[in-house]
Design brief:
Elements (H helix, E strand, L loop, with lengths): L1 E4 L10 E4 L9 E11 L1 H7 L9 E6 L3 E9 L11 E5 L5 E3 L5 E5 L3 E3 L6 H5 L2 H13 L7 E5 L4 H12 L3 E6 L4 H7 L2 E4 L4 H8 L6 E4 L5 H8 L6 E3 L11 E2 L6 H12 L7 E6 L3 H10 L5 E5 L1
Helix pairs in contact: 3-4, 6-7
Length: 306
Amino acid sequence: MKAITYHAYGTPTRLELVDAPEPKVGPSEVLIRVKAAGVNPVDWKLAAGFLGHVLEVRHPVIPGWDVAGIVEAVGPDTDDYAVGDEVYGYVRKEWVQLGTYAEFVAAPVRTLARKPRGLTFEQAAGLPLAGLTSYQAITRAGVGAGQTVVIHSAAGGTGSLGVQIAVALGARVIGTAGAHNHDYLRGLGAEPVLYGEGVADRIRALAPEGVDAGLDFYGEGGVELLQSVVREGGPVISIADNDAGSKGAKHIWARADTADLTALAELAESGRLTVNVEHALPLAEAAEAWELSARGRTRGKIVLTV
């Protein structure tokens, strides 16, 4: 099969399109013919060596955790899916090595759910990691109907999904973003406020009684900002600040969870959640996709088509 690989830590220029062995399919796994693979900042951060102290990485690496595709084969004692089923998932395994930037990937069924009807394969591939991250942050914060939540960095891939999920749960959402993204956020159901100096005052002007929860999808002072506007005792959760715990907030990583993936699919099928794919590039252009991701200015998601 064709796959993207890198053999050592470094920059996107180390990525190569190579011929690789088709993966073996073990018990409780399926072989997926990949139609699209989602690109996330964690992919190039892993390749740069930033997370080597946290995750086991075995070179050469086929990067990627997000996938949407069609079941090509099932492993021994695997009856969750059948050949031909359309699936999507967050294929994070015990170590980083055999990922989704390839024509085929072997995926444990615990990392998968049925692909949302009505989403393209490209849209579905952009949903798993960002969707699980935002969904699990929102549910762990206890966000529900009638509450006010601030999402810091609301127009990116994770933030835009978080806005839609919180709105679907009946919450009022205030989202920080650059001025060029304010109409986009209004279209998702959020009340936008401008980044930068004075942002806390602008949030307080919209919610003078305070807000119930804060979600930091940006880092770099996001936890402190949200703590200054959230009511005393209200939860602040960060996906971007590794030191959030020492500041009285929570830092979370997305967990592969079939039930949560299914919940996201149901939101998508009901029309309450969509995925904005800003860039869809062929597999061979993975390095360009990483460069786009690293610039941090993408509205929505970047995916690779296979």
